[in-house]
Amino acid sequence: MEYTDVNFAGIKDKVTIPDSDYPLTIKGFVKKTINNAKATPYLLWAFEVNAGLYAGEIVYGKTFLTPSSLWKLKGWLGQMGRPSEDSVRLVSEDFAGITVMGKLVHDGKYPQVDDIKSLDSYEPPESRPLGEDECPF
User: In the β-sheet with 58-64, what is the strand arrangement from edge to edge?
Assistant: First the structure.
């Protein structure tokens, strides 16, 4: 008889974060391959929500590495402040800690799966001077 012991102590339920724009901190990425006939390669990016009700939650986004899909990765790199050249080596650790604004959207087919659809550059409020009409508290 095959079995395994599993300890669920301290494991939180998966929180489904509502679709919206969130300030995110990049945790890094891993290179993966979809198990299909083409063995499609992609980068799975992990982001931590860094403000609001869902601060600390981890969400994910994919950038595919096929020639017809590299436009998304190229755009993301620009929003991360890393404009792409003709050829570039990406190292996950080099992206950890970069803050961006991400649009979280859940796929209708898999509503429990997070997907960051787009990124924008983001300057956290504490790192810029306040405007005349902004209150610091």
Answer: 58-64, 41-49, 20-33, 99-104, 116-121
Phi and psi based region of residue 27 (left: phi greater than 0; alpha: psi -120 to 50; beta: remaining): alpha
SS3 127: helix
- Rounded to the nearest 5 degrees, what angle is found at the Cα of 89, between the Cα atoms of 87 and 95? 125
State residue 100 phi and psi, 5-degree precision.
Answer: -140, 165
Taking all residues of the chain, what is their mean pLDDT, rounded to a whole number? 83
- Could you give the residue ranges of the DSSP H alpha helices within the chain? 70-79
Q: pTM score, two decimals? A: 0.77
Angle at 130 between CA 127 and CA 135, to 5 degrees: 120
